């Protein structure tokens, strides 16, 4: 069937449903045609487009812009998935071993396994916070090989030093005097420089699909000096900055004790929002003050429903939406099915909306339309990419089609509101993926890699990590159920 696979160039995609911009939002149009020429969408029409170009008919499918994951650690899913859930998030040792014990080929095998999952489930752009500069290099190598679009960065401090500064392996936060805390500054500045060099090397590489950012781990592992250095480096790359922002109440309290300001106010006072910022988690946000600041900044809150694997944590997505903060969706670290992530962002957002209320704080019930708009156009706008996240003339041909009419997901025919069918879908329903006009998945077949090879290479690297975990007694101990923490909103 190889002759049927469309190639880069001219093609007309005729889909039964197409998601297009509509004012500030999006709408579904029926039986529309999208003409692609090389890397661009050149025409979108509800009439038949006259052309001799090859036609691809997508009956029963919804064509959407390629999804943008607003917060991603591609490299760490394979060795941690399904071994952290019974232990309630204790993944620090696995991540540390990955960074220390795997060579570049093994790291690339793990990165490739997960990046392939993201692409084939419709995520064409990753705002990637690799856990070290080594892992950022691995991401960039694999993204180059697969033709992914990415905004990679290496987290600072990276995995090698993080747990010295932050907390004992997934246990309590480190208590240290301010002098000891300051002694980590030179090491962090050196990491920032190494990540800047990575960024300069890869900036605009791969036909401009790779645009590196800078990344701060969080506010409680930085000082004004290191945050200022990150902002300066991010400005020189020109693509923005990533951070886990106010990810816990403890983080905000620590920052307030050290610097007299809450996490969000503190980075604002240091000028972080002079560059676009992608932030994740925000369990420790002050919901009375922080959303108002962030709604007035170049900031994207990436809600990550699978933040510590599969769990019941509820991030403040409904409150951020209600305040007018730009909200996207991120896969974070352990689940790489983008459709599942979209769905779970909605479900968990609704659980929070109905289950948690903070007096005086507005909340809005998230809908699938919010999640899809957030993971396409809104994320693209914060990336300053009017050519991404929308199906319109002149935009990049990053396109995804999903079977929303077949078994399990649909009703045999196109439903009146096909976005709602995504709530019944997973990545298995993604049928076609294009990035920059290149076909990555055609009719359900992955074209950029061989699944068997990806599996075999990932298996070897992952088994190596698990063997070390076995030797360390990881599988013999269950972390006991934790008492309920403080209220998420201060
Ligand atoms: Zn993260």
The biggest sheet, with number of strands, parallel, antiparallel or mixed sense and barrel status, is: 8 strands, mixed
From the spread of the alpha carbons, the general shape counts as globular
Number of strands: 16
**Overall mean pLDDT score?**
94
Description:
The strands form 2 sheets. The chain has an 8-stranded mixed sheet with strand order 3-2-1-4-13-14-15-16, with helices on one face. It has an 8-stranded parallel sheet with strand order 5-6-7-8-9-10-11-12. α2 crosses α17, α7 runs parallel beside α9 and α14 packs across α15. It is of the alpha/beta class and 490 residues long. The C terminus is likely disordered. The site of zinc ion (ZN) has 6 residues, from loops.
Topology:
Blueprint: E1 10-22, E2 25-37, E3 40-45, E4 54-65, E5 67-72, H1 77-80, H2 92-101, H3 104-120, E6 123-130, H4 133-146, E7 149-156, H5 159-165, H6 178-182, H7 185-202, H8 205-208, E8 214-216, H9 224-237, E9 241-245, H10 249-259, H11 263-269, E10 277-281, H12 290-295, E11 299-303, H13 317-323, E12 326-329, H14 338-355, H15 368-382, E13 399-403, H16 418-421, E14 430-435, E15 438-442, E16 445-446, H17 451-471
Parallel strand pairs: 1-4, 5-6, 6-7, 7-8, 8-9, 9-10, 10-11, 11-12
Antiparallel strand pairs: 1-2, 2-3, 4-13, 13-14, 14-15, 15-16
Bound molecules: zinc ion.
């Amino acid at each position: 069937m190889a002759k049927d696979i469309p190639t880069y160039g001219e093609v007309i995609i005729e889909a039964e449903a197409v998601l297009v911009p509509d004012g500030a939002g999006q709408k579904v149009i029926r039986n529309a045609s999208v003409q692609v020429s090389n890397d661009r969408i050149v025409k979108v029409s509800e009439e038949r487009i006259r052309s001799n170009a090859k036609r691809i008919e997508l009956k029963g499918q919804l064509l959407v812009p390629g999804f943008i994951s607003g917060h991603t650690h591609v490299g760490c899913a394979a060795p941690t998935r399904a071994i952290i859930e019974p232990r309630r998030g204790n993944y620090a040792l696995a991540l540390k071993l990955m960074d220390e014990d795997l060579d570049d080929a093994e790291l690339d095998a793990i990165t490739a396994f997960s990046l392939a999952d993201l692409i084939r489930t419709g995520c064409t752009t990753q705002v990637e916070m690799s856990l070290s500069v080594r892992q950022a290099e691995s991401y960039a190598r694999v993204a180059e090989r697969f033709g992914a679009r990415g905004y990679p960065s290496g987290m600072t401090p990276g995995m090698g030093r993080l747990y010295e500064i932050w907390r004992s392996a997934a246990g309590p936060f480190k208590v240290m005097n301010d002098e000891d805390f300051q002694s980590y500054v030179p090491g962090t500045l050196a990491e920032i420089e190494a990540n800047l060099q990575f960024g300069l090397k890869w900036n605009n590489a791969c036909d401009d699909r790779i645009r590196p950012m800078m990344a701060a781990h969080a506010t409680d592992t930085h000082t004004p000096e290191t945050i200022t250095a990150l902002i300066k480096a991010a400005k020189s790359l020109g693509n923005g900055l990533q951070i886990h922002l106010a990810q816990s109440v403890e983080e905000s309290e620590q920052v307030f004790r050290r610097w007299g300001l809450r996490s969000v106010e503190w980075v604002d006072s240091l000028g972080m929002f002079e560059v676009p910022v992608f932030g994740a988690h925000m369990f420790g946000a002050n919901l009375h003050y922080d959303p108002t600041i962030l709604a007035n900044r170049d900031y994207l809150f990436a809600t990550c429903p699978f933040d510590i694997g599969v769990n019941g944590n509820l991030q403040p997505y409904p409150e951020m939406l209600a305040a007018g903060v730009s909200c996207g969706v991120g896969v974070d670290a352990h689940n790489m099915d983008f459709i599942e992530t979209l769905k779970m962002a909605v479900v968990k957002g609704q659980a929070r909306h109905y289950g948690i209320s903070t007096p005086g704080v507005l909340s809005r019930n998230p809908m699938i339309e919010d999640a899809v708009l957030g993971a396409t156009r809104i994320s693209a706008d914060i990336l300053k990419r009017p050519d991404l996240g929308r199906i319109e003339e002149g935009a990049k041909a990053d396109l995804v089609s999903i079977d929303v009419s077949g078994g399990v997901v649909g009703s045999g025919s196109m439903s009146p509101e096909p976005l709602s069918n995504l709530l019944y879908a997973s990545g298995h329903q993604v049928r076609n993926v294009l990035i920059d006009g290149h076909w990555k998945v055609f009719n359900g077949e992955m074209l950029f890699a061989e699944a068997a090879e990806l599996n075999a290479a990932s298996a070897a690297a992952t088994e190596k990590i698990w063997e070390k975990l076995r030797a360390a007694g990881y599988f013999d101990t269950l972390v006991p159920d934790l008492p309920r923490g403080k209220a998420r909103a201060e």
